[in-house]
Amino acid sequence: MIDVPRIGLAQDHVLKRALLLYGLHALLFNLFFVFAYYILPEGFMRSSPQMGAAEAVARQPSFWSQFVVTVFFNLGVVALIILLCNFNRIKGIPVGYLVPVSLAIAGGLIVGTNSFLSDDLDRYSSVREAMALGQTIGGLETLGFILIVAATVPLGVYHYRSWWRWSGRWKPEKVMNLRDIRLSRSEVLTLVAGLCLLILAAYRETAMAASR
Question: Which of 38, 39, 156, 187 lies 20 to 30 Å from 168, alpha-carbon distance?
C-alpha cells in the first residue's frame, strides 16, 4: 500500500464535492457555449461522436423504446464510465472528475452551435423558455451525473503518480481492496438521488420529444 496525496476536492464532504463539481461544470459550459456561439457554425456538432446516443434514441419508434434507450445510455454507459473512472486516482485526484469536465465542454459546444437532432432552439421566441427547457432536461441529467461522481469518490482503488503515460511513474499501485470500499450514508443517499435524477431526466426528455 502507498501513501496517497490528500486532495481537498477528494476528501471533502460529498455535498461540498458535488457543489464544487457543479460550479466547475457551469463555468466550463458557459465558456464553451460563448466560444461555440460566436466562433463555430450552426450545427457544427451534429455529426460528432457525442451525438451518437441522441441519434440512437431518435431512431426508436415508440415512447417507451426511446425512454429505455435513453436510460440505457445514462445509466448503462455514462454512469458505468463514471464508476470505472473513480476506481482510479491520479496524484490523488479521482479520474471521475474528468466526466463533468467533458460533459461541460460537449454540452457548451452542442448548445452554442444549436446542434440538437430533435429540436431547434431558434423556434423558441423567449430566451427564458429555451433556458427552462434546457434545465428541465440537460440540467437534471448533468446534476445526476455530478452526484454520482461525487458519491463514488471512495471507490479509488488504484493510484497513479503521473498523468503522463511515459513518465516512468504511471504504473498503477493498489491502495486498497474492493472489499475495503465503504460509502457513508450521505454518499449512498447522494448516489441514489443521482440515479433517480437520471431516470427523471430521461422520462422528461422522452415526453418532450413525443410532444413535438
Answer: 156
